[in-house]
Amino acid sequence: MTVLLEVQSLSLEFRGSRGTAPITALQDVSFTLDRGETLAVLGESGSGKSITAKAVMGILPKPAAVVTEGRILFDGTDLLSLSAARLRAVQGARVAMVFQDALSALNPVQTVSTQIAELYRVHRGLGRREAKERAIEMMRAVRIPDAANRADDYPFQFSGGMRQRIMIAMALALDPDVLIADEPTTALDATVQAQILELLAEVTAERHMALMMITHDLGVAGQLADRALVMYAGRVAEYGPIDEVFDRPAHPYTRGLLGSIPGAAHRGRDLPTIPGLPPDIARRPPGCSFNPRCAYATAECASIDPPLVAFASGRAAACHHLEEVLSDVPVGA
Questions:
Q1: pLDDT tens, 280-323?
Q2: Topology of domain 3-225, CATH
Q3: Which end of the chain is more exposed for a tag (fewer CB within 10 A), N or C?
């Protein structure tokens, strides 16, 4: 496999007004993404999934968000070291993103074909007519019915599912190597969700792209992904091949997420949940951030932050009780 994207020990903080202490949003985040591979980034809201994606895309809110350590290597080049002009040549063209809320991401006063065509005009130097023809081709590629006649419609004239297809068309227009999808099926009904996920799986396979899928939905992750990156409070909790992570989780947080999936065994009973709430990243507890919610926690967990430890080929977890968690009864057994 060819490694396209490698994030090495990425740490990021938000800085407010003078005299305000910075807030650490990401701490020592590392992972790789190979060509043709799908990586599912999992975790509750606030775990650092989307800010990691924005760091990779180079669209962090400036000047508040500051990368304090680490590298983001794309095809061997550190994106953090690039000038604004060189980074723009990568954004969209080689690394593209499908955002969570298509209606907010699309320009409401431009037709959809104009927005797709702009990518061809800026990055490929095409004329207005040829760029529009390419835009219509991309609309057809993501299965928008009657694409030629709908090309001059505005975003509000499309359904939620069709708007998300337009976002995917924009992301795929320049044939990128890496596609980042940030909760691409949020607020869509189950049937449309399935269609969008099927479309993403097909186009990434056809183009042999790498897909970084950010999702809360473990079912979606299990269906699409090759590997899983589980995040908690801005850190990597667990990382590895998704089948192994789901069958034999090594971190208590991963066990909790998997145990919360509704199943036939829960019929007539309360659904298991992880107690408590995710920590406020501005007031992380000492030691392991998960320790106040963890059934395995000991005094060590409340005082020492566990490092991310590789324990098998392609697998790693940040837990003081790694062996105990691994040897426990499998989730769903």
A1: 988 899 999 999 999 999 999 999 999 999 998 899 999 999 99
A2: Rossmann fold (3.40.50)
A3: C
DSSP string computed for 220-233:
HHHHH-SEEEEEET
**What residues have CB less than 8 Å from 291, skipping those under 6 apart?**
285, 297, 301, 302
Contact criterion met (CB below 8 Å) for 42 and 242: no
CB atoms within 10 A of CB 59: 14
Q: How far is CA 24 from CA 72, 290, 312, in A?
A: 18, 16, 29
The beta strand positions in 222-274, using DSSP E, are 227-232, 235-241
Q: What angle do CA 93, 99, 103 make, to 5 degrees?
A: 115
Residue 309, H or E segment: strand 309-312
Q: Are 173 and 135 in contact (CB under 8 A)?
A: yes
Pairing type for strands 77-78 and 95-98 reads unpaired
Given a cut of 70, is residue 332 above it in pLDDT? no
- The Cα–Cα gap between 266 and 16 comes to 45
Q: What is the pTM of this model?
A: 0.92
The pLDDT of residue 92: 85
The tens digit of pLDDT for each residue in 220-256 reads: 899 899 999 999 999 999 999 999 999 999 999 999 9
Alpha-helical (H) ranges within the chain are: 49-57, 84-90, 102-105, 112-124, 128-141, 147-150, 160-172, 190-207, 218-224, 242-247, 252-259, 322-327
49: helix, coil or strand?
Answer: helix
Other C-beta atoms closer than 10 Å to the C-beta of 40 total 25
Determine how β-strand 95-98 pairs with β-strand 178-182. parallel
Pick from 307, 260, 302, 287: nearest CA to 42: 260
For residue 6, give the amino acid letter. Answer: E
| 3-state secondary structure (DSSP) of residue 84 | helix
Rounded-to-integer distance, Cα 167 and Cα 305, Å: 40
Query: What single letter denotes the amino acid at residue 263?
Result: G
Distance CA 277, CA 281 (A): 12
CA distance 75 to 5: 6
Between CA 180 and CA 170 the distance in angstroms is: 12
